[in-house]
Design a protein that fits this description.
496 residues; alpha/beta; TIM Barrel; Immunoglobulin-like; 2 domains; binds alpha-L-arabinofuranose
């Protein structure tokens, strides 16, 4: 056989935080308007009385996302939350500086909170550290969370929301290091400002969890900011989008994100030691990740990626790395949820699930619980790897990771099942693999496969099921020599 996977349920490396399967919505392209809501919809039953797209809500509910981040992204760096509350006819229409669009402000804080309740998720708000002030951030926190007799809490009540929303997760700006960001800062300036914001926000509501703005996880910025903010924060955020028109690069470059998590976790450890807060619990919040090529799907045109089977395999590799790195990951947010670099796509009258939705759904449903440390053997890929075409700084990975396993594997243990996620990244070889277990198991194993002969296969509005999940069963015995088809993703559920 070509491969070996050894599974020992005792070898638990850590717990997969449910928040690993969180999402992200930005006022960008057709994400909010036409994606989450359609206030002009003429199709009966497609939206409810609040304008929510019910098909989108169902697709996202099925993912059981515990948290959704909002309202940006780059958008937030010139967003004033006060524009988006109160009677809609009084809300100002504004030019928008991140994607050079216009913002009607018809969907704002209260609409987002109601939508979160509708789909059963928790809100995570990103603060404007571009054109925004600390006063404005404190006012937003008071509006959302305060039950006192004070101005912004009363404004929320006046707007029809008696009870506080108790928003737990707040982030201190978005990609503040980036030259594209309104209000870009140096790491030193950001650290000073964010420290003071963190202090004040926690004075107003000590129950909140704060997320610091990190970069790629292995830069000067990350060193400086972890050192400066470690005593104030609960999460440290990093972002990465991978992609390549080359199949092998596309499916292997998520390895760079795995390295980034490992390095960031060490920067956090180092900061805890040098800043003398060894017991602080600070986890990584990977609050933007996905396959995205901004040349193929430019941001100012709404970043409407058309995902292929190859991208679905890359997303499976992303899922696997989050499981393997479970001890370090406190939250991860697929960017984004609908229309913009998204698993779900809409037209004015219909919607469909992109290829990437399917592996992501399998991870969301089954890859929870405890992460297991596996022993994996098999063929390796030694060509160029770990390189995102559009992000040159990712080129470093191929120097430190000269060979990558073609079988990319992770496993979890939950509710009497061992769940094994396997991406066979080989372009042309089915890999017959012997899966060896410690312990006793039930006879019937459930398998879920995402596969197509053509790595360029895509789903479209007219042909929605080109790539989907095929469910089957096999015998436990069959796992002694299980064939993973070339460029496929398989999730095996083995009952203990
Ligand atoms: O998700 C799209 C954009 O990518 C976000 O607005 C930004 O934070 C990142 O650069």
């Amino acid at each position: 056989s070509k491969g070996l996977i050894k599974v020992d349920p005792c070898r638990v490396v850590g717990t997969v935080d449910d928040k690993t399967y969180s999402g992200f919505l930005e006022h960008m392209g057709r994400c909010i308007y036409e994606g989450i809501v359609d206030y002009d919809c003429k199709v009966p039953g497609l939206t409810n009385d609040k304008g929510y797209r019910l098909d989108v809500a169902k697709a996202l509910k099925d993912l059981e996302m515990p948290v959704v981040r909002y309202p940006g992204g780059n958008f937030v760096s010139s967003y004033h939350w006060m524009d988006g509350v109160g009677p809609k006819e009084n809300r100002p229409r504004r030019p928008e500086l991140a994607w050079l669009g216009e913002e009607s402000n018809h969907f704002g804080t209260d609409e987002f909170m109601e939508w979160c309740e509708f789909i059963g998720t928790e809100p995570y708000l990103c603060l404007n550290m571009g054109t925004g002030t600390l006063d404005e951030a404190l006012a937003w926190l008071e509006y959302c969370n305060s039950d006192r007799n004070t101005y912004y809490a009363n404004l929320r009540r006046k707007n029809g929301h008696e009870k506080p929303y108790n928003v737990k997760y707040w982030s201190l700006g978005n990609e503040v290091w980036g030259p594209w960001q309104v209000g870009q800062m140096t790491a030193e300036d950001y650290s000073k400002t964010a420290f003071q914001w963190a202090k004040a926000l926690k004075l107003l509501d000590p129950s909140i969890k704060l997320v610091a703005c990190g970069c790629n996880g292995f830069s000067e910025w990350d060193y400086t900011v972890t050192q400066a903010l470690i005593s104030q924060i609960d999460y440290y955020s990093i972002h990465d989008y991978t992609s390549s028109s080359d199949y092998y690069k596309n499916v292997t470059c998520p390895a760079a994100a795995e390295r980034a998590i490992q390095i960031t976790s060490k920067l956090i450890d180092l900061a805890k030691i040098t800043q003398k807060v060894p017991n602080r619990n600070v986890k990584i919040c990977f609050d933007e990740w996905n396959v995205w090529d901004p040349d193929r799907a430019p941001g100012h045109l709404g970043a409407e990626e058309k995902y292929t089977l190859s991208d679905a395999i890359a997303v499976a590799a992303w899922g696997n790395l989050f499981i393997r790195q479970a001890p370090h990951v406190g939250m991860a947010n697929i960017a984004q949820c609908v229309n913009v670099i998204a698993p779900v796509m809409t037209t004015g009258t219909d919607s469909f699930l992109q290829t990437i939705y399917h592996p992501f759904l399998l991870f969301c449903k089954y890859m929870r619980g405890e992460s297991l440390n596996l022993h994996v053997e098999g063929p390796v890929y030694t060509g160029e790897t770990g390189f995102s075409d559009h992000v040159d700084y990712m080129a470093w990975i191929k120097d430190i990771e000269p060979a990558l396993m073609l079988l990319d594997v992770s496993a979890t243990k939950k509710d009497g099942y061992i769940n094994i996620a396997v991406a066979n990244r080989s372009l042309d070889e089915d890999l017959t693999t012997s899966i060896v277990f410690e312990g006793d198991y039930q006879e019937i194993v459930t398998t879920y496969t995402v596969y197509h002969d053509d790595i360029a296969a895509s789903n479209t509005i007219d042909n929605k099921e080109v790539v989907s999940i095929k469910e089957a069963t096999c015998k436990f015995e069959d796992l002694k020599a299980y064939t993973f088809k070339k460029h496929s993703f398989v999730l095996l559920r083995v009952a203990i």
